[in-house]
Amino acid sequence: MRADAQRNHEKILAAAEEIFALDGVAVPIDSVAERAGVGVGTLYRHFPTKESLYEAIVIARLSGLVERADDYRRRLDPADALDAFLRDFARQAAEKQDLFEALDQAGIDFKSRFAGLVDELNHHVEALRLSAVNAGSLRDDVNSGDIINLIIGTCHAAGHSGADGEDVQRLVSVVIAGLQPLARR
Amino acid sequence: MRADAQRNHEKILAAAEEIFALDGVAVPIDSVAERAGVGVGTLYRHFPTKESLYEAIVIARLSGLVERADDYRRRLDPADALDAFLRDFARQAAEKQDLFEALDQAGIDFKSRFAGLVDELNHHVEALRLSAVNAGSLRDDVNSGDIINLIIGTCHAAGHSGADGEDVQRLVSVVIAGLQPLARR
Amino acid sequence: MRADAQRNHEKILAAAEEIFALDGVAVPIDSVAERAGVGVGTLYRHFPTKESLYEAIVIARLSGLVERADDYRRRLDPADALDAFLRDFARQAAEKQDLFEALDQAGIDFKSRFAGLVDELNHHVEALRLSAVNAGSLRDDVNSGDIINLIIGTCHAAGHSGADGEDVQRLVSVVIAGLQPLARR
Amino acid sequence: MRADAQRNHEKILAAAEEIFALDGVAVPIDSVAERAGVGVGTLYRHFPTKESLYEAIVIARLSGLVERADDYRRRLDPADALDAFLRDFARQAAEKQDLFEALDQAGIDFKSRFAGLVDELNHHVEALRLSAVNAGSLRDDVNSGDIINLIIGTCHAAGHSGADGEDVQRLVSVVIAGLQPLARR
DNA sequence: TATGAATGAGCATTCATTCAT
DNA sequence: TATGAATGAATGCTCATTCAT
Questions:
Q1: Which of A141, B94, B152, C21 lies 20 to 30 Å from C68, alpha-carbon distance?
Q2: CA-CA distances (angstroms) from residue A50 to A29, A36, A127, D160?
Q3: Cα separations (Å) of C100 from A99, C104, C110?
Q4: Do chains D and B touch (3 or more CB pairs under 8 A)?
Q5: Nucleic acid strand F within 7 Å of B44 CB
Q6: Which domains does chain C have, with CATH numbers?
Q7: What are phi and psi of C143, to 5 degrees?
Q8: How many CB atoms lie within 10 A of CB C50?
């Protein structure tokens, strides 16, 4: 039965991602269960509160981003690494707006709940930022929080205004252009 | 008696703005009434549904922005007009995040509900954009929707991440820098 | 509308007393509302939690008992006062078993929640006890807690075993006989 | 394999007794299974409903009491037999309040469900009572139901008020004193 | 056969909206 | 007309019981 449980766990996560993205995190938990094709009880066996389901999704996303940030930093030169990461981040945000809806709604609690992961993300973005600044490909008057806010916000608004993937990449390009050092502008 | 009604109308709008900004649009309507110092019944006499109260606030905000866009376009030269408008828009967004939260939450419905106003806003931003492009102070590969999305999103993320007014102006500067024509970069 | 509200408040209390006594405190709150002829929302306006409804009933009962204890102590001689109080207490307990069910279920929390009232009751029973001991009509090796336990327990078991008012008085008589000083036995 | 089943049956009964006594009969059946170290499925194989588990415990207890009543009646003189039985009953009740909680909660159904056992218990207590009355060591105006109610109730209240074993014995002494024939008082 | 995952009816509570005063 | 009490559908969550492994 572990196979079944595993399958249900994934079905629930997938259903939650989809439905949160479609209808926002305010959807009844019953709808999530229904979409996943399981009973509410099953959902609650896997995720003891609505918040925990929600957290599980956010954590999976952030973890993915953290890994990618690290990966790009190792494999690419500083300017390209930051650029690739930002576009990646944006693509993910554009596809599934719920991560950022979650980031928003969690508000102040967010920082304490995901403190470790957020710190880690900041840390990796900071590493990317520093390399890029040192390589002269990034202005030195913005911090890693600024960079994250710019991308999150851009994608979030794009997601809600019905912009498609191409639109989002255009917006991200503007942000990236704005991040060039003054000398280059 | 009409004076009283007018006063109540304004008290309700003000209370709703404040409390939506503080606690989000999910606050019970009773809290709004209480903050306004009126009974729920009175609130419902002025705004027949929660959504309508919500709409009234958004409309007031958008109208204000539209007026300013027009004003700046008339009084300033193209580059300054767009710059001033964007900073203004950002300032307002930073101070009261609820407008954009509202914009988000209203989601797809938003466009149909506020179609006229949104069109008008787009129209004015488009006018600002065209003048600026013609004056060579704005890249020509972004449209008015892009500009609005960039500012809304940036401010929204800033608002939720606890950024202060200065942080927001820094973020907006990055966006504005990114909007410079390629020649200048 | 205060008249209506008052009426509803009383209807709810009465319904809760009846239904708790009939079916135990585990009955759904909806049943209480239905029995009272009001909506659940109304019930919750008057009593913000199930526990608070429950508390309101217990408090009303305990307050009545406290007043009576005081009254008897002032009006009757020591032996009669304790006797009258115990029979009174028993009568009330026999009629409405829910008070003691409540006393039971509240368990450890009970003492803290009703601390003031319980202390007051204990205080009054202690006063009755002391007068009676001094008058030589009560054995001196039981404390006020013992007396309360004896009466509560007796009535409680009687209530659950279907004993009628006469049966209960007979049981109370046994307890009262057992409380006589050794010299008299 | 039958040995295993037997062992599980007993582990479940023991766990249920303990946990019901500690936390009341409202504990989830999963907790009982967990405490017994078996899966819920296994528990349900042995006891098809929660009520049946509950019944099994009550039956075991009542059977034990019936046996003791009989034993005392044979071995001791009338006054001592009743006295010993009552103290025994009380001790058991004081140690494990759940029997009487069960007696309470089962309410009206109780009599029909355990009719045979209750009758048997009554019958044995009646035998003890008659011998004692005939021997002049028990007042003749109480019936066996009264006696049972007095002890059950006393212990029940004691259990819920945090009284210790010594307190209970003191309370039982009062009841026993109250059961003396009038001539002796 | 033992396990524990799955089920879903049921419960306490909230809140947008209506309506008696 | 303003008030706030009343309403009840809807929500998150629990737990007795069933069933696939």
A1: C21
A2: 7, 14, 34, 37
A3: 52, 6, 11
A4: no
A5: yes
A6: 1-48 (1.10.10.60), 54-184 (1.10.357.10)
A7: -105, 180
A8: 16
